[in-house]
Amino acid sequence: MDFVQVSEEEGDEPIELPAEEDGTLLISTLQAQFPGSCGLKYRNIDSKAVRGVRSNEGRLFPPNADSDWGEYVYFCVFPKENKRKSDDNLENSTAKTKRIETRLRCTDLIVLGLAWKTTEDSLREYFESYGEVLMAQIKKDGKSGQSKGFGFVRFGSYEAQMRVLANRHLIDGRWCEVKVPNSKGVGHQVPCKVFVGRCTEDINSDDLREYFSKFGEVTDVFIPRPFRAFSFVTFLDPDVAQSLCGEDHIIKGVSVHVSNAAPKAEQSRTHQGQNYNYNSGNNFGMHSYHPQGNHMNSGRNGHHRGNNQHNLHGGDNTAIGNSHSNIGSGGYGMGSNNNYGGNLGGGYTNSSNHNSGGNMNRQEAGIPYNRQNNFHGMNQPHNGNVGNSGWMNRGHLDMPNLQALGINSQGSSSSNQGQNMNNPLGVGLNLNSLPMNPALVAAALNQWSLLGNQLQNQNQDQQGGNFLSWMAQNNGGHSNSNINSGGRKGPNNPNNSGSSAMIKGDNSASNDQQNGNSWSNQSSGSQNSVDKSNFL
DNA sequence: GTTGAGCGTT
C-alpha cells in the first residue's frame, strides 16, 4: 500500500495516509486526520511554486502519471471560511484558523439506548454508512463484560457527524439516541437557515434551491404565502449559511439580500416556545423538501406518520438512490409509504415493510441496514457543484431526531419494547403520554424548517402535513385517545390491510398537488400575521 | 442469568 505524507501546514510534521489501490487518496481519509480539509497541495521542487493536487469526486489524484505520489510532503487545503473579506477583521488567514474549529470539529458522540447485544463491531458497522468511523465503543460492565447499553462513536468528518445527529437510529433492533455528550438538544449551534429578502413573486422555491445549491446542499426552501417578499433557505452546513449572510445575490435578475435568520429564532428558543401551542389546533406544515436519500420509517411507536407525506415536488423529484423503507408493521406511518421516484427496488414484506431503492430491511433480513452510498463528498462548500452531479445521494435528512427531543414513546410502551418490531401497535400513540417539551420541539422543527409552513397554500410545491399538524389535529381537546382506529387503505399499498394503519395524506406517488392536503391547513388558530419571526 | 436512564477506568 502506498502512503502519502501529509501535514496540516507546510513544514509541519507529516502524517502518512494510505492511498487506495488505484493510487488515489480519498478525501475522507484525508479528513479523518485533518478535519475540515478539502484538498492537498505541495511545493514543486523545480518551480518552487505551490501546486494543487487534482481532486475529483472525493478523490485526490497523485501528480505523477504513474500514480506515484513521489517523495513530496503534501499539505492541506482548507476551504475558505468566508468569501467576504470585509467585515471580519478578527479573522486572520492562517490555515489553522481557517479550520473553523470548534464548530466543525468532530466530537465523540454518545449513543444511548443500545441493545445489550450490540457490539463495538456492529456499532461501527452501522455508523460506517454515514462516513468513516474513527472510534466505536461500547461501555461495558467491568466484571461481567455486559454492555451498559450505551457507547460512543466518533466520525472522521463533521458532515457525517451532522447527519448522524440529525437522524434517528435503529441499531440491532433498538431505536438509539445519538447526542453530543452532556448536551441537551439536537441540531446545530450555528443556524443553517438564512433569510432571503427582496424576493419577487416570480422567484419560486426551485429557483432559490437551484441558485443556492451551488454554495452547498440546500435542505429546505420556504416561501411564506401569501407573498411576503422574503423566503428562507436552509443549508445542511451551517457555515455555508453563515458565509452567505450579509450578501446580495442576483436571482432571476433580482437582487436579493441574504441575512441571518437566527436572532428571532434564538428568542423563540429561549422563551420556551412561547409562540407555539401544540394543543391549540395550530397547523404546522410539513417540512417539505426531502433530499434524496433514505427515508427510513418505523411504525413501531407511531411517530412517523409524517414520513408518509414526503412531497417530492417538481424538479426535485429526481430521486437518486431513494430509499424509503418502513420498518416494523402495523404502526402509524405504515402502509402508505410508497415508492417515490420510481425506483422501487426492494421487496414488500408481509408486515408492510416497504423497501425501495434496494435497502434491506434490518429487521426482516437480519443484516445491516445499508444506506447505499449515502455519504457524499464531504465538506465541499462553495464548490460549484450543483444538483445531482455535485451532491450525491443526499440522505439522512428526512426526520428530525425526535427521540433526542424527548418525543419518544419507548418509555410509555415498555411492554412493547425490545425486539418485537412486528407487533408494536397494541400501543397506539397516546399523545398525552409523550414527554414533549414545546421549546425543544419548536427548536427542532425550526431546525428542520417544520414550522411556519402553515401559511402555505396547499397547492404550493412546498407543503404537506406533518407529525405536528397531525398531532395538533388529533389532540385538539386533550383527548386521551389512542389513535389507532379506522384508517383507510392506501391506494398504492399492497400490504396495507387498512385494519390498523391510519393513513393521512396518501402517498399515491406523483401527487404533488394532493399529497398531504387531507390534513394540512385543517386546523384553526394558526397565525396569520406573518412576519419574519413567525418562521423562525 | 435481571435492566432501559444515562455521560466515558483514557
Distance between the termini: 51 Å
Shape: flat
Mean pLDDT: 58
Show unreliable segments: 81-102, 265-531
Compute the number of strand runs. Answer: 20
Helical content stands at 10-25%
Radius of gyration: 23 Å
Q: Identify the CATH architecture of the domain at 94-179.
A: 2-Layer Sandwich
CATH topology of the domain at 94-179: Alpha-Beta Plaits
CATH homologous superfamily label of the domain at 94-179: RRM (RNA recognition motif) domain
> How many distinct helices?
11
Task: Write up this protein.
- Residues 287-323, 404-424, 458-536 are annotated as: Disordered.
- Residues 107-183, 192-263 form the RRM domain.
- It is found in: Mitochondrion; Nucleus.
- It is a single chain.
- With 536 residues, the protein is an alpha+beta fold.
- Among the domains are: 3-77; 94-179, RRM (RNA recognition motif) domain (Alpha-Beta Plaits); 193-260, RRM (RNA recognition motif) domain (Alpha-Beta Plaits), CATH 3.30.70.
- The protein contains eleven helices and 20 strands.
- The protein has helices at residues 27-33, 101-104, 120-127, 158-165, 205-212, 238-244, 263-270, 362-365, 387-390, 438-447, 467-474, and strands at residues 3-7, 15-18, 25-26, 39-43, 50-52, 55-56, 59-60, 73-77, 109-112, 133-140, 147-155, 169-171, 174-179, 193-197, 218-222, 230-235, 248-251, 254-260, 294-298, 323-327.
- The strands form five sheets. A five-stranded mixed sheet has the order 2-1-8-4-5, covered by helices on one side. Strands 10-11-9-13-12 form a five-stranded antiparallel sheet.
- A hairpin with a 6-residue loop joins strand 10 (133-140) and strand 11 (147-155).
- Helix 7 packs antiparallel against helix 10 (438-447).
- The longest helix has 10 residues, at 438-447.
- The structure holds one DNA strand of 10 nucleotides.
